[in-house]
Design brief:
single chain; alpha+beta; four-stranded antiparallel beta sheet; eleven-stranded mixed beta sheet; Structural Genomics Hypothetical 15.5 Kd Protein In mrcA-pckA Intergenic Region, Chain A; Pseudouridine synthase; 6 helices
Length: about 270
């Protein structure tokens, strides 16, 4: 792929990364360009996030950036996107869209995400999630045969230092009740395709809960087993937020509607 050159004339004095982001690049991609010395300021290679002045010329050298998301629905109040892997919601998708993140997906989890475009819509969506007027469904492929149609309850404890969570069968100190509804769509001795609905939702809930149940998600490097990672050789976890269903939440564009999209790894598969 050929290298692209983009010149930007600074209109307002800002740090150089802000100038690059204001011209269509994600913050993480702009940081990568700076680290790789692919940004020049007035013809000189820039190594730090320096301040620019009006009239300066910032030049970026890059290969086409992989899109962080695609828009599925948008109106004046909210936007629903299909978020791609390795993209943060906070400081990533929300910043690019200039919208409020009212729920989140893990960095490595792909799928449907709704953001509010106004403060009023933000309040309504926060209330909707709090009152469970929004239903969130996921598709995932897990290790082993797992035939089930059941609501599982457990307790989750977050370890902020290790950036992971642990699951317990009973309430312990600093734990939170989690509820995960799991329905098998297809299953064999090697793997199972599941539809998962979470009521509420905590950090890494689905990934950790399924691993606790003995069926880690294929490709999950944090909660999966080493032998399974070697066997399936998946570089990203097979977990996808595929459906959002809305009751009457006070936003005319989405009230009573359902949005659904399937992951690429299920193309051609009937579910």
């Amino acid at each position: 792929m050929a290298m692209i050159k983009k010149e930007i004339e600074v209109q307002k004095a800002k740090k150089i990364l802000e100038v690059v982001v204001d011209n269509g690049f994600s913050y993480s991609f702009a940081q990568k360009l700076l680290r790789n010395k692919d940004i020049k300021l007035n013809g000189r290679t820039c190594k730090e996030n320096v301040k620019t002045e009006v009239g300066d010329v910032v030049t970026c050298y890059y290969k086409e950036e992989v899109k962080p998301f695609e828009v599925v629905f948008e109106d004046d109040e909210c936007v629903i996107v299909n978020k791609f892997s390795n993209v943060e919601v906070e400081g990533g998708v929300d910043k690019l869209l200039g919208a409020y993140a009212v729920h989140r997906l893990d960095r490595n989890t792909e799928g449907l995400l709704i953001l509010a475009k106004t403060s009023e819509a933000k309040t309504k969506l926060f209330d909707a999630f709090k009152n469970h007027w929004v239903r969130k469904f996921y598709l995932t492929e897990v290790v082993g045969e797992f035939k089930v149609d059941k609501l599982f309850r457990a307790y989750l404890v977050k370890d902020a230092v290790k950036k992971e969570v642990k699951i317990f069968p009973n309430k312990v100190s600093n734990s939170h009740l989690i509820e995960t509804y799991i329905r098998t769509l297809k299953s064999n001795k090697e793997s199972s395709l599941l539809e998962v609905e979470i009521i509420g939702g905590k950090t890494h809930q689905i990934r950790a809960h399924l691993a606790y149940l003995g069926h880690p998600i294929i490709g999950d490097g944090k909660y999966g087993r080493r032998e399974d990672l070697k066997r399936f050789k998946e570089k990203t976890q097979k977990l996808f937020a595929y459906k959002l269903s809305f009751k009457k939440v006070g936003l005319k564009g989405i009230d009573g509607k359902e949005f659904k999209i399937l992951p690429k790894w299920l193309e051609g598969v009937t579910i």
